[in-house]
Amino acid sequence: MDYGSSVPAVGVDALSDGDFLLDVREDDEWRAGHAPDALHIPMSEFAARYGELTEAAPRDGKVYVICRVGGRSAQVAAYLGQHGVDAVNVAGGMQHWEAAGRPVVDDEGQPGAVI
């Protein structure tokens, strides 16, 4: 999918351990399965909770934004870019994350699933 040239994007394979990952999926999606170290701020609550990101994100690093397939994360990455944040959309989202064999855990830290 092409989200426009204004939104930088990378595939899951380009991510390294320690990269800052922002998951913008909704609560039910998050509870079912997410990347273990991701910050969760649902897109529907993003404007109200923006301060959580600014407190947690690395000052001089990239914010990799992920959702289920890449549409919502592209929108949030574009928003962040407009506000001076070095944000990158993770193309293919959590579906590609899971397919690549990356860890997915539920809220209890047990193996999860992408829904």
TrEMBL record:
<dbReference type="InterPro" id="IPR050229">
    <property type="entry name" value="GlpE_sulfurtransferase"/>
</dbReference>
<feature type="domain" description="Rhodanese">
    <location>
        <begin position="15"/>
        <end position="106"/>
    </location>
</feature>
<dbReference type="Pfam" id="PF00581">
    <property type="entry name" value="Rhodanese"/>
</dbReference>
<dbReference type="InterPro" id="IPR001763">
    <property type="entry name" value="Rhodanese-like_dom"/>
</dbReference>
<dbReference type="InterPro" id="IPR036873">
    <property type="entry name" value="Rhodanese-like_dom_sf"/>
</dbReference>
<protein>
    <submittedName>
        <fullName>Rhodanese-like domain-containing protein</fullName>
    </submittedName>
</protein>
